[in-house]
Amino acid sequence: MSSALILWMLGLAVLAISAGIAYQLLGRSADARRFPPPGQLIDIGQGHRLHVHCLGDGAPSVIFEAGIAASSLSWTHVQPRVAEFARACSYDRAGLAWSSAAAGSITAAGCARDLDELLRAAAVPPPYVLVGHSYGAFVLHVYAARHPHNVAGLVLVDPIYPSEWLTMTRRERWRIAGGALLSRVGAALSTVGIVRGCLTLLARGSTGVPRRVSHLFGSEAAKILNRLVGEVQKLPAETWPAVQTHWSQAKCFSSMAEHLAGLRQSAAEVEACGELPREIPVVVITAASQSAAYRAEHARMVARSACGRHLIATGSGHWIHLDEPELVVDAIRTIVEGRRAS
Fold first, then answer.
1. Using one digit for the tens of pLDDT, what is the confidence trace for 271-287?
2. Which domains does the chain have, with CATH numbers?
3. Exposed site from 87, 139, 147, 157, fewest CB < 10 Å?
């Protein structure tokens, strides 16, 4: 290959990358105008701002904690209904949706500290009914262990549990590490506009290019992408453009990578907290699709509370608040009304 051809190819690559970066920057600017945060951006210190969105009035306040890569939008089916009888606040962890980028590693203990600082800075008064999906249960467990007097009750929606992640097989550890690596690759692709382009094509109904790009990273990555797209489609259609916008940004992929990389440490932090005070009411909602081992662990979570309830979501997968939101709303209402009665 001649040196002239090599230089021509390098120049073409530089031009393509520059065009991709320009496309991404222009898209981000347009996104900021089209999709301003529905809530407030609260400074929790050192210039880090978290997005919190509160609706309704009435104590105790209900605080929503999303799953590992989800945002405040994942509670769209639940939060407005809860706001009819209590103050309901959802928020975005660092790096996700409207919140500013994460600074370094992400673990449950750090997220619980951020949550405490956010609630203080946003002047959301305790006590709180804490509602967490999946990974969100880790964050809420640490928060409740550190601030038990602020907690009126917990509603855990198909929560993960520490032993599941502390006793991973070598293959499972490789899968988590692979997920973190792919997320970092996604961040790099977002920077040069590739993710934005693929998501734009998907939104227009063109699946050819996005599928080919996802298959470059293996069948497992393609399956995960298909599953996530399926869950997002359960949200109201008017939220889809905002979700697309968020996942066109490198910070969301970077945040996901840090969540995954810190998952085992997060499990250790929850384990180190020990059991929560028995007087805190706990409702655990388990997806019918879960294994017998999952159901048994969820039953043990409930048994540790003097006021525990275990519910099975018979028509749901892991995202119960999207499949059966009324079940989650009723569980929250039960704890809110119990607190008011006491």
1. 999 999 999 999 999 99
2. 40-167+262-341 (3.40.50.1820)
3. 147
Mean pLDDT of 145-157: 97
Please indicate, yes or no, whether the overall pTM of this predicted structure exceeds 0.85.
Answer: yes
Task: DSSP letter for 261, please.
Answer: H
Amino acid code (one letter) for 306: A
Among residues 229, 228, 227, 202, which one has the least CA distance to residue 213?
202
Backbone phi, psi, residue 287, to 5°: -70, 140
Please list the helix, strand and coil fractions of the chain in percent, rounded to the nearest 5, in that order.
55, 15, 30
Query: What totals of helices (H) and strands (E) does the chain contain, helices first?
Result: 15, 8
Q: Which residues have a Cβ under 8 Å from the Cβ of 66 and sit 6 or more positions away?
A: 72, 74, 75, 90, 92, 93, 96, 133, 136
Q: Which residues contact 115 (CB under 8 A, 6 or more apart)?
A: 63, 65, 91, 139, 143
- Pairing mode of beta strands 49-55, 61-65: unpaired
Q: Beta strands 49-55 and 88-91: pairing type?
A: antiparallel
- Main-chain phi, psi angles of 64, to 5 degrees: -100, 130
